Amino acid sequence: MQMTWSEKFEHKGRLKGRREGRREALEEGVRNLRRVVLRLLDQRFGRVPVSIRRKVEKIDSMDRLTELAEKVLAVQSLDEMGLGNGAVRMRS
Predict the structure, then answer these.
(1) Average pLDDT in the chain
(2) How far is Cα 89 from Cα 48, in angstroms, rounded to an integer?
């Protein structure tokens, strides 16, 4: 059975809506994971320098942000995080 013009138009609209929804959900996930990483860094090392905050805020990869979140548990300093800006040590 062949679709009418209006059915094709509607179908394309639904597909576009789904793609946009997935993109928006991914962007929201990245924003949330950035917040988690920054909170973990704050809790582990105290106040995080603005330069490092900016670096984290520029990351748009879920994989990289996940890697950083996991790394917080294993390192002893911000230096070891691979984000630069000196050796702020873990809180005692």
Answers:
(1) 85
(2) 11
